[in-house]
Structure prediction request, 86 residues.
Amino acid sequence: MKVVVFVSIIILFGCMTATKQLYAEARDPDLLYRAKCTACHRVYPPRNYTYQKFQVYITRYGGGLSDEERQRLLDYLKENAKQERK
Prediction:
């Protein structure tokens, strides 16, 4: 019985932690960027690439993103990406 209670507490704590992370990602686009993009590769600072390049990457590799996540990432990257030379 003690083992069942202990395991239940561990599972509940894990769920609460995951929920907090999802809530934080929902509010902070940088956390969303880090959480979604580092699932496959290291974090690349947005200032290293142009917004146009990020658009290509997200179109090509962002198949697992919801429409809302995709738009939030694109908005974030538009603000923080390297400026294109004219």
Remarks:
- Residues 24 and 77 are 18 Å apart (CA to CA).
- The chain has a mean pLDDT of 80.
- Helices lie at 2-27, 29-37, 51-61, 67-80.
